[in-house]
What does this fold into?
Amino acid sequence: MSNKFKIQIPASSSNLGPGFDCFGLALNIFNEYKVEITSTNDYFDIESNLSDDKFCINNKDNLFYKSYLHLLTKNSVEKIPGIKVTLNSQIPCSGGFGSSGTAVLAGLMAANKILDNKLTDLEIVKEASILEKHPDNVCASMLGGFCLSKFENNELTYKKIDWKLNLDILMLYPTNFRVSTSEARSVLKKEHSLENCISNLSNSAFFTAAVLTKDLQLLTNSMNDKIHEEQRLKLIPGALEIITMAKENQAIGATISGSGASLIVFVNSKSNKLSILNKAEEIWQSHKIESNNIVCKVSNSGALIY
Ligand code: HSE
It folds into this structure.
């Protein structure tokens, strides 16, 4: 095994409206980890182009290192090979891009390399889903494209669907405001009416059909959620205004990305893209929130190690 390798992992957006904890979409925004196995056991060092973020904490609480250590320990490796990581990140430090999932996956993939690729992709994604506590982001980042996933009876099931819709994606995100996933999960209702369950079931099925049949009208019509958005929108000042404004500007769909605070907007040539970008910034400013955006597309390729 070479003692130097690279891992490239795409960002992801999850839920996409109705597919709570099931839908994941890989984005063509990447984290690249240059990894060097060192001769000193238990050594860890990370350098990064990110400033002051939890993914570049230079100690053993780092998410990459914790996942690396977890997999090696689980496989009874007694002397943990030292590791030096250089992270070149295109992924903003804002919730809704699946960045913790990329760190977990990268740590697991580095450990799997040391284990002579003992684990299959399914086993890596399963381990990452357990560490992340939901499978949607890590499945999309690992496999690329549009992924369906579920974790049921301790079994992970996933299905990748190639995304063939020619849409741009506007990722709108605050830069001085964050909502943690644990906070965004703590506000969720534990019980739902039959009507709401039926609505989410139908919309998830129709969203998937829209992706498979490239039916944009159906995609627009199915991006409705009754399970998580209402509670979460209250945590993100300006989010409802921005989503409403994007739809008024002919967006194909707009919703919270993952657990927020980023928002994801699907647009095509008929959408008023510039106006959505400018007005989103103004709306956030009116709530004293600084913001930025990335215009991207779906990545049909997933994680690579080379
Ligand atoms: N599906 C998860 C949630 C994604 O919405 O809580 C978190 O990034």
About this structure: The radius of gyration is 19 Å. The first helix runs from residue 63 to 74. The pocket of L-homoserine is lined by residues 14-15, 21, 134, 136-137, 181, 184-185, 258-259 (CB under 6 Å). The CA atoms of residues 174 and 291 lie 4 Å apart.
